[in-house]
Design a protein that fits this description.
With 296 residues, the protein is α/β, with parallel strands linked by helices. The chain has a single domain, classed as Aldolase class I (TIM Barrel, Alpha-Beta Barrel), CATH 3.20.20.70. The chain is 47% helix and 9% strand. It has a 7-stranded parallel beta sheet. Helix 7 packs across helix 8. The longest helix has 18 residues. It starts with 10 loop residues before the first helix and ends in a 12-residue tail after the last helix.
Length: 296
Amino acid sequence: MNFNNTVLIDQVGVEERVARFNTRSLKKDTKLRGLKLALSMIDLTTLEGKDTDGKVKQMCYKAMHPADDIKDLPSVAAVCVYPNFVKVAKKALEHSKVKVASVATAFPSGNSTPEVKIADTKLAVDDGADEVDMVISRGEFLKGNYNFVFDEIAAIKNACGNARLKVILETGELSTLDNVRKASEIAILAGADFIKTSTGKIQPAATMPVTLVMLQAINDHYLKTGKMIGMKPAGGISTAKSALQYLVMLNETLGSKWMNNEWFRFGASSLANDIILQLGKEERGVYYSKDYVSID
């Protein structure tokens, strides 16, 4: 396929539009609904070398019960773990609506053979993963080997079976918004169900300009084909205020169809704690100490 004619990005225009999103003022009731919506869109994540079965089980409990002493809180959307913890998470969440997501394809670097990446994906899916978060080969992309990137995504999509595929672009390594747009288009055409900014392992991770460019790619694809693609900004979104700004941008760019956790996610575990603190303050009139929420 020819990927040399992708849309070029007006960086100044993107930054000016993002600045306008950040000036929106929300009324109290709208803010509360937005915070609960953002909580329901979070993928709680643990992707560390020191992960254990116990840590994964505790995260699954928190996913189902973000704060037992605050009324009417939704569960989060999913928990995200390494493939070897999928069985543990699946059992812990078996009576809930929370999805199990698993990173795959030699996360976070993506540097391995196609055979290893496919085996990684199949392990996660065979053990019950509802979603797979793969990473693209940024080295191949930056060399201009776009067909390699397309073919690899398509192969992983095939290995996913019925599991939904989130394709991580690792935008902090792509250097330019033009590259972000091109990588988004490649991922969408290759079969991504979601496109995702980052692994959360490098900086910068998710930013609003990068997310806007990806949302615009999704919108253009929808206008051409009628097919919806999901979006997941991940890494660096840690405050309730910033989550609300992302939701404003989502609504004004893609509209109400995307305003649910079927089509939009936050990859930001620490965000859950700040939302819980904000909702607790609205309910009781005072802030909890951070000591009242779990460390993820």
